[in-house]
Amino acid sequence: MSETTSTDKERKPPLDGRRAVPSNYSNDEENEVPEMEAFGLIPRGFNPKDYLRVVDIHMFQEPYEINKQQHHTDKYYSPKLIVRRGQPFQIQIDFNRPYKPEMDQFWLEYLIGRYPQPNKGTYIPILVGDVLKPGEWGAKITHKENNSIRLSIMSSATCIVGKFRLYVAVWTPFGILRTPRNSATDTYILFNPWCQQDAVYLDDEKEREEYILNDVGIVFHGNINDIKSRSWSYGQFEENILDACLFLMDKAELELSGRGNPIKVCRVASAVINSRDDNGVIAGSWDNMYTYGVAPSAWTGSVDILLEYYSSKQPVRYGQCWVFAGVFNTFLRCLGIPARLITNYSSAHDNNANLQLDFFLDDEGKVDTTITKDSVWNYHCWNEAWMTRPDLPVGFGGWQVVDGTPQETSDGMYRCGPASVQAIKHGHVCFQFDAPFVYAEVNSDIVYLRRKKNGIQVIEKIDTSHIGQLIVTKEVGGDGMMEITEDYKFQEGSEEERLALETAVMYGVKKQTPQDTMYQPQTDVDMDFQVQKAVLGSDFKVSITFRNKSHNYYTAKTYLSGNIVFYTGVTKNEFKKHTFEAKLKPSSFSTFDVVIKSSEYLSDLLDQASFHFFVTARIDETGKILAMQKATVLEIPTLRIKTQGEMVAGKEMSVTVEFTNPLKQTLENVTVRLEGPGVLRTVKKMFRQIPPNSTLIWEVKCIPKRPGLRKLIASLNCDALRHVYGEMNVQIQKP
User: Fold this and answer.
1) H or E segment at 697?
2) How far apart are CA 340 and CA 325, in angstroms?
3) Domain holding 584: CATH number?
4) Per residue in 158-192, pLDDT tens?
5) The whole model's pTM is what?
6) CATH number, domain with residue 261
7) CA 135: distance to chain centroid?
8) 488 in the same domain as 355
9) Beta strand pairing status for 625-633 and 610-619?
10) How do 175-178 and 162-172 pair as beta strands?
11) Which of 243, 336, 459, 489 could lock 190 by a disulfide, CB 3.0 to 4.6 Å apart?
């Protein structure tokens, strides 16, 4: 919107009584800037052509030119200049005659939004000086030749992040002459982790390459006993993604003047990534019904989601936690905030934030699902963003948890963070934002409660080590897993851990003490169980082991409940009930196997092939109850990707995706997707049927754009089978 039309004047937003200027939260809107700003009456003989006039402006915006090379922005598919703040960049101005400093005066103007104001950082006039001060706006001439001058321009290390418009203004005795509006000179300014004065400064080059410049990542999923991984294409440099990310800040109505602050940017983004309460990017769905959208497991990356949202302005269906986290990571890396995707295994979703997940057992020892409201997610993904925290005491900067998955509201909206990882570790949960919620996700205890006939609640067992057992992210510079549990918590059972917990409780995290209810732990008999690893479609067994440490004979009435669950730990249905009596001899181990047949589970299986087993045993002689739960995930077959022919940038190559149906049933309406940043944009194809044991083969031709090590990522999806992935590294040669 470059010209203000008469309808615009009628549509001007009403001024409210508190502000002289309406709020300015659209990077897209513009004001009209006069090309001739007269000081008064203009004499009749005045001819603007007699004065210094700008003929052309060169932005050096090509990927191979100095600006994008020095600013690490050469990977962005954008014809415009993209630079990082607090670091000098070059432009060249061609005048109609040689520039004479003693008589000519010109300056630059950078504007953003519709109501530019100097005190808001949305109107920036820059005079040409002799020196550039680090981290402050300024310009100096580095080279003069004929009618041209070369300028080095420094932006402020705290300036607004977004798309600025550039004007060159020339002073004449009768008024100011400006260059006309020219979108080719628009300049994107991003956060700068390479600049020491920037709030997102990161001092390790290898980490900057990973957390800013890597456009592919790994999502760890599955569960604690069976960790699975898959690739995710962030695609932060792909065409129009930068504009889509800036649009998200407009959508979240973040004042332009606040867009230089990574804390504010992360906080509003964590709300706008999900569609709850603000029509944001992704609609979440956890019910296994994805009729009017794409199943969360089918996405292979963020680009399709962001571009669809940018064009339709409507929430994209559907996402679950890794999709929210993947898109959030793209947003952060695209704008220049170092970011990584985190997986927390056995993540607590604590409905009443009392650091305790309450599982209520009935008299038989079965879990009562009607009153059990808390759940354990097999895993939960969130993001960490790197920044200083000047709003908190010293020592709480660095990695901050931000989470775009809509779980609980914060200040009235579904959002979470930024919460300092360091503050969570030490229990200082009083520091904004949302630290108590994240603390509970990694530190809650599981409490098994049984209500007796007389109404008294008895605690049967407290499990203090099940939650937050493992917290991981992708390693720097490789596809392996890096454990970061120690960033979030001290060693389980250590003195420091107790102290951190006491600190958290002191700062208002509610923690019930066992004194509230009767609790006598069972000491005579220990129980454990193991689930055999199994491939989808096959039978497997659950082995339950008792260790009787006493000198007595015991009989344990044992109940195994097998449930098909969403990865959030919420049960869909119980597919296996098995009760038996276990005779336990004194001072001995006894093992009992229960077989699970594929026919028992296949018809009801959900996307992630997740099971949850509860085993409870009641010892007849003492009335004591043993309880334990474990999640398990089946092995899902993978897609195979092959390439043919030479792989050279700019030349056609061929990619083949293959898949063999392992089930005893025909797969119907199967969608396969394939993408690879820099190699091919997402392509998808529908296959009507794949009979049992038959193989699907799909060949795709593409022309890779960029040389270097690239990744191809594929997914297969249908109602009977989800979370089928394949990937392949390819080395694209230079032409």
Assistant:
1) strand 695-702
2) 9
3) 2.60.40.10
4) 999 999 999 999 999 889 999 999 999 999 999 99
5) 0.88
6) 3.90.260.10
7) 29
8) yes
9) antiparallel
10) antiparallel
11) 336
User: Residue 9: what pLDDT?
Assistant: 38
For residue 40, the model assigns a pLDDT of 81
User: Do 664 and 624 share a structural domain?
Assistant: no
- Give 429's contacts (C-beta < 8 A, 6+ positions apart): 423, 435, 436, 439, 503, 504, 507, 508, 509
Residues 617 and 675 in one domain: no
Look at residue 8 in the predicted model and tell me its pLDDT. Answer: 42
Strands annotated E in 41-196: 54-58, 81-84, 89-95, 106-111, 123-129, 138-145, 148-154, 162-172, 175-178, 187-190
The reply to whether 87 and 156 lie within a common domain is yes
**What is the span of the domain harbouring residue 678?**
640-732
Over residues 123-128, mean pLDDT: 96
Residues 574, 698 within the same domain? no
**What was the pLDDT predicted at 6?**
40
Confidence of residue 353 (pLDDT cuts 50, 70, 90): low
* Whether residues 464 and 600 fall in one domain: no
Same domain, 350 and 408: yes
Where a domain ends, among 633, 667, 701? 633
497 is in an annotated binding site: yes
> β-strand 316-319 against 282-284: which pairing, if any?
parallel
Q: Does 54 reside within a domain?
A: yes
Is 83 within the bounds of a domain?
yes
CA-CA distance, 343 to 221, in Å (whole number)? 7
Q: How far apart are CA 658 and CA 701, in angstroms?
A: 15
Residues with catalytic roles? 321, 380, 403
**Domain membership flag for residue 127:** yes
Cα(87)–Cα(105) distance, integer angstroms: 25
445 is annotated as contributing to ligand binding: yes
How many C-beta neighbours within 10 Å does residue 62 have? 13
Say whether 146 counts as a known binding-site residue: no
Instruction: Give the angle subtended at the CA of 674 by the CAs of 669 and 678, to the nearest 5°.
Output: 160
- Whether residue 69 sits in one domain with residue 158: yes
Instruction: Measure the CA–CA gap between 322 and 343, rounded to whole angstroms.
Output: 9
Residue 13 covered by a domain: no
Q: Is 699 annotated as a binding residue?
A: no
What is the tally of structural domains in the chain? Answer: 4
At residue 262, the 3 state secondary structure works out as helix
